[in-house]
Fold:
Amino acid sequence: MRIARVLIDGRPRILVQDGASARLAPADHPDDALAAIESVRTGAAAGWTETEIGEVEFLAPVAGAGKMIAVGLNYVDHTAETGITQPERPLTFAKYPTSITGPTADVVVPDHVTQGVDFEAELTLLIGRRCGGSTPATLDDVAAYTVANDVSARDVQFGDVQWTRGKSFDTFTPLGPWLVTADEFGDPKGHRIYADVDGELLQEDDTAEMIFDVPTILEFVSDGVTLEPGDLILTGTPAGAGGFRTPPRYLQHGQVVTVGVEGIGELRNRVVYRSRLAA
Structure:
């Protein structure tokens, strides 16, 4: 099953695709992907209106998140290209939920703050139920998977020493276009993950190449930390991001970044420098 949020008559609506059938939730249905999954599983969505996906505008598949936990240096080749020693346990950091934006929305760069904006393709988990704390989370606690671009201001990221601010500017976490439920997505290993800039493929790997696989990440981040329904976990990026190339290739005004994960879909976001908006 696939769940999306789309814009209909200026309002967000839930769209569910189950096999060949696409159904639109009624306007009074909660703007909540997890509620939509529950509606389908309980049969409450049986009467939803069948629709054609067509040219609808996709929004971020979640309206927000309580926590966003990200993992750094989690692909073998990416860790090697940074010159940093491979971590012995997952390296985690936070992103602000206000950085979430849609799969086709502009990434607006505050270029008075940063001149070193980069892209990172990431498989992302949506937590479906309260878990963790005293009992670490497992794959059974993952409701769905989606795609994220962990947009990163490298000069801010490394200038601050800690990473949160440089990865959390508004619009710096495009998500979507779909949430794919765990039963349809299957084993999180073995999916192609990639990113291109203006059509040039710059990142390509397989999620099986994670240093710490999804079960290990879940166990680590939830040990002593309660995860809530709607929390998001970004699982790391493969090699090839612009900031680690020689010379570095940071994103420029007007470039378009496409990020995808096999079995889910693609983000396609234009980069817009804020200073150009006022011009």
About this structure: Residues 33-42 form the longest helix (10 residues).
